[in-house]
Amino acid sequence: MKVRDSFNRQILKIALPSIVSNITVPLLGMIDVAIVGHMGGAVYIGAVAVGSMIFNLVYWLFGFLRMSTSGLTAQAYGRQSSEDIVKILAHSATTALLIALLLIVLQWPLRWLMFWLIGPTSDVVPLAATYFRIVIWGAPASLLLFVIMGWFIGLQNSRVPMVVSILQNIVNIVASLTLVYGCHLKIEGVAIGTVIAQYAGLLTALWFTLRRMRHFSLSLHFSLFTRHYTRRVSDGHRAFSLNRDLFLRTLCLVGVNLYFTSAGARQGAVILSVNTVMLQLYLFFSYFMDGFANAGEALGGRYYGARDSEAFRSTLRHLFGWTAALTALFTLIYIFGGLRIVALLTDEPAVVSEASHYIFWAWLIPIAGSAAFIWDGIFVGLTATRGMLISSLLATLTFFVIHLTAPLVFHPSPITHHPTLFTSKALLNHALWLAQVVYLAMRGIIQTLWYRRRLRF
């Protein structure tokens, strides 16, 4: 019993602060929208919405900076190699700064590409461009924060990321309100407030990092960037391979999410609204599961680095025990309260009414998606990025095959008389949700098979 409690305490020690951090992340964008919502024009809301979408998408693509740093650091922590821990941070920080510099240099073609993909209206474009031109200068802070947050998670510490996330939101509120209402800067004030919050978060994270360095009795110096690092931690090819796999895997996820949104949009404003609101149920579930995935990264990588197979397997069992409990809890919440949550998110009668015909798909999301979250964390800890890429790629192919073929297989027939479920328009959206649920399940299934055949130790 004591051993079980020990593993549960370790998991919760990492998972709970991570959950708090995850919940605070969307607040940065929500705060900006709330402030511009009182500027006297919907165009301001549209500009911030477009700008936030661009940076969420761009930074999501570079999420591999956090994941690779977390996995490598956790393994070094398990090996009790202080020198490697510091060198991993130096290498990842250098990569982040180079990418951030590239984003700033290429900001004009990047902005054009994003506007082309999103297609904002002509009245929104000038304000969204202003927002983009300012917030792009926060790229170094944002990408370095990815690295530092991943580093601390690898060190079994998710409290620092939580503190930094909370601080960022407080600074963003104060700075944006001051600049908008005190200095009358409008959209510029919101954008500058966001950048100030990003650098405030970075400075706080750097302070925690320097404090943590004292425990290693090491300092950052130029020799950390020499070939010794490449030989000692992982060769350059391996580092490139990890980041490449994670980047391509993220492209698969982004592709599915963008297609899901655009496919719903093609069916009209009501269906788009229904899908958007129902996806919030998935996002809320993901905030909790990501916390336990972070625990999988930290503890799985630690025990893998220490070659402690017994502790690793015990951690895995406990993680899936928590996963089963959360899956059951969220499934019950969505079965008995899913429509009530939808009604809280929107007061549009047409959207709430239409959502009642699709809500049962939300019941399946926790069951279908829970395993993929935990395996993602474990695979990051093991730096088994190839398995993450293959599972995401095959699941993505499955998604598109199902969505494109399901309407042909389950076409409306004279025998079926249900007025909503079997109309051609409704069938397209049911096919979309079927593809989404199977896509989530396939990721978990393929990763389970991959672990059993290739990674178990």
Give a written overview of the molecule.
Residues 218-235 and 414-423 have low confidence and may be disordered. The protein is mainly α and 457 residues long. The protein has helices at 2-36, 42-61, 64-79, 82-105, 107-118, 125-135, 139-154, 159-182, 187-213, 227-232, 236-265, 269-305, 309-345, 349-355, 359-381, 385-409, 424-455. The protein starts with a helix and ends with a helix. The protein is 84% helix and 0% strand. It has 17 helices and no strands. α3 packs parallel to α7 (139-154), α11 runs parallel beside α16 and α12 (269-305) packs across α14.
Briefly, what is this?
The chain has 17 helices and no strands. The chain has helices spanning 2-36, 42-61, 64-79, 82-105, 107-118, 125-135, 139-154, 159-182, 187-213, 227-232, 236-265, 269-305, 309-345, 349-355, 359-381, 385-409, 424-455. The two termini are 25 Å apart.
| Count of alpha/pi helices | 17
Which percent range describes the beta-strand content? Answer: under 5%
Tally of DSSP β-strands = 0
Average pLDDT over all residues: 84
Order of helices and strands: HHHHHHHHHHHHHHHHH
Write the layout of secondary structure elements.
Blueprint: H1 2-36, H2 42-61, H3 64-79, H4 82-105, H5 107-118, H6 125-135, H7 139-154, H8 159-182, H9 187-213, H10 227-232, H11 236-265, H12 269-305, H13 309-345, H14 349-355, H15 359-381, H16 385-409, H17 424-455
Keywords, separated by commas or semicolons:
single chain, 17 helices, 84% helix
